[in-house]
Amino acid sequence: MNKLIKTFASVGFFVLVSFLATETATGQNLTENLATDPKVTIGTLKNGMKYYIRPNSKPENKVELRLIVNVGSLLEDDDQQGLAHFTEHMLFNGTKNFPKNELVNNLQSMGVQFGADLNAETRFDETVYMLPIPTDNPKNLETGFQILQDWAHGALMTDKDIDEERKIVLEEARSSKGARDRLQRKVLPELLANSRYSQRLPIGKEDLLRTFKPEVLKRFYKEWYRPDLMAVVVVGDVTAEKAETLVKKYFSTLTNPTKGRARTVYGASPYTKQSAMFLTDPEQSSTMLSINFSPRKTEADKTTGDYRNTLVEQLAFSAINLRYQDMASSATPPFAAAQTANSSFIRGYQALTITVIPTSDLTTALNAGVGELISIQEYGFTTAELELVKKRMLSYIEKQYNERSTTNSSAYLKEYERNFLAGEAAPGIEKEVELYRTLLPGITAEEVTAAFNKLFSKEDQEKFFAFVMSPETKDAAINSDATLLAAIEKSFAQKVTKKTDVTVSDTLLDQMPAKGSITKVQKEAKLQITTYTLSNGIKVTVKSTAFKSDEILFRGVKRGGTNSYGVKDKATVSMLGNLIQTMGYGKFTPTVLTKTLAGKNIGLRTSMTPTTNIVEGQSDIKGLESLLQLNYLELTQPRLDQELFNGFVSTAQMQLKFIKSNPQAAFVDGLITEMFNNNPLKPIAVPSEEDIALLNAQRAVAIYKKEFSSADGYHFFLVGNVDESVLKPLLEQYVASLPATGKEPEFVDNGLRIKPGNNKFVFKKGTEPQSLIIAQYFGEMPYSEDMALKANLIGDILTIRVIEKLREEMGSIYSGNFSGSMEKEPFPSYTIITQLPTGPENVDAILKQTDVEIAKLKKDGPEQKDLDKVRIATIEKRREEIKTNAYWLSKLQQLEFSGYSIERFLNFENEINKITVKDIKKAANKFFDGKNSFIAILNPEK
């Protein structure tokens, strides 16, 4: 089921009067069970394995397969902690029909990428295996089912493979270390009320992972991987009949143990008192406070009444969090962000949580966050704010309904997973939109208030667990467990005021702009696009598609960019979009604009690259005029509001105050400084106090007007379900009316370059035994699309080598990759870059092996099988992406604005298939010419 905010459903019925009133108002029988979507086939084999099949043609020639095992780390014995997750690793590392690495190799030959496509996830209660299969070759689907069958009961788990995998699992455990991990490990026993969940983190215990005997792992697999605890999900471009035949063929023969262990269901206990922890860590980069109330047993939505209860709670949480957004966007924000939610740490339980991230002191943030909840308790929600939230929710669900025939297969997977694991109904979008339309209007503010007050009752406030994670203990009032607890108790007793509703305008523009005209129309048959030239010089290229039933993507681009500005303006232009958005547009503050746009599925944002200015947004079909009105408003009427600007600055100062406490943030900041030889024009990775001090509201508005407000040089693109007969008068009214000066904008090459030569930078920070290698190989080179493609392929080929050598053979990394790219502007150049997280003891060996792989590529070129793998992966990815609006939006910008070759684009598969091992070898010798490299290494301090 769709959840705008995942909340729990209350069990039971309303009192008779309320029930009858709702029955009359909505026409819905609240006791009626929610039927299952008829488009999905759900069945159970004789061995107890469940299956879900849903034919779906988006994207074409692709099927999403999932194997869900209703077993996670909770089911581990004391000597198996971490082995549920270890089992997941082993299933990619040798099965009956795919020994050792043949599984990954086989899938790569289909175009399925390890990590990006092929993956798995182990949680407390379950393990989910993810396998997308391209079906343009009929044999692929059979292979996919064979892999799922092997995962279900065909693991090899040789002692040798287990021992080799230990290093990789330990590298994964290493990657999560740091301040947050250290603090969370202190918090979790209290947060989870010392339940079994707090004792069974999926990553497990490192000492055990190093020393467990293989028989212990095999015991876990044998006892728990069995059909009565499994489900297979098949969603995609396949008939239900064929999918069901394959499910029965591959899984009917699986058997359960004669005396299978019972699958224990573990629960949660309520808190018995008020308790608090104030925790600090010198590497923590920000302060966060969280108040958690006792977990409550819940049941999944099964009836219309359950569904209505969930909608009531969704309204409550949406309205609360909208209030928090307003406060965070105010001139004196009490917090950078705040949220109240029903969190689900434990399956079958949910708990009310309040989280705040302060902008100044904790006391102010705490009182503001809790105060809003006290205000709701005392005065309730207003009808006006709930009507606004209802608009949003209804608009969201109706857009999903409108796109029901073009929904991507991946969108259905979580719904079927929840049905299997939690018993949640899966009624389908047709039924859900009907429920929204009939149930939402009858839900009153009083009812929503009452529902929330059940979750935030006086009794709940007497038993909770709160914690702070902070980099320091210098807060004036809250700096210990005792002072935190006292401050929370005091916040519950504060006096609050009633919320006042803000008057919201119905229109974005007070008056219509002077209408322009279309002066020229050009059609490009090969790309099936139309380009309109407008009277103010703007070009608008339109491609009407049916990829999504209710989606229109929009982008405007022009020359310019951050390179046109010097050191004094560097910080302002790097944050320009956020600065202007913070102050609002025309008569609208950000909060008022948000409310004005409620119920409209539109959005718009501006940004700058070094050489371009971009405005980008999206809408549904009915929102197209509003989107173009919003575009006119935002481009022509930036709002100067010094108080809101000051609020942004104060929030930024607090958020950035401790950012460099994080070792990786400090490393990247130091790396950029060193890489660009301390050039004052270097990019801003982590804004400094000096950067923030240079921000200026008047200057920001002046730059914005210069860069965005004039029509000169703009090329706009619209892709999606566009009716051009409807669009043309809108272009004349809202786009051709943008003012023009007649001066064509240009970009600037400001001379910024990476330090030439072969350089090495070693940075030491952090207490954990973690290292990070970032290696770049770069240079200037005349741009060509052919060489850009070869740079991409070289990055993908080296990624395969990284997985095979550094991960599988050496066990030195858990993840890592290479990527290659070329740029035309501001100067023609290339970059091949790799990021490899590891341990300090592995750094030298990794660098040595990386040099070996590059040298081998230069000497011999890639192995043919590796070139074939990356070629088919690229082709498969393009075949899927070319049926999306987002792909075409970016591609049209390249073709129509940046001058890329249309013929090459149309013949892409021929172009990539022409590339040989010899071609890659030749390109590698140009890219890795030995002249320029920058090797950066983050090591711990000790």
Automatic annotation (TrEMBL):
Give TM regions: none
Question: Which residue stretches, if any, does this entry annotate as coiled coil?
Answer: none
**GO terms under biological process:** proteolysis
Key word Cell division present in the record? no
Q: Which domain of life is it from?
A: Bacteria
Q: Where is the Peptidase M16 C-terminal domain?
A: 212-392, 704-871
Peptidase M16 N-terminal domain boundaries:
56-180
Arranged from A to Z, the UniProt key words for this protein are: Hydrolase, Metalloprotease, Protease, Signal, Zinc
| One Pfam family of this chain | Peptidase_M16_C
> Does this entry carry the keyword Lyase?
no
**GO MF annotation list:** metal ion binding; metallopeptidase activity
Signal sequence residues: 1-21
Q: Which family does it belong to?
A: Belongs to the peptidase M16 family.
Protein's name according to its UniProt entry: Insulinase family protein
Species in which this protein is naturally found: Flavobacterium alkalisoli
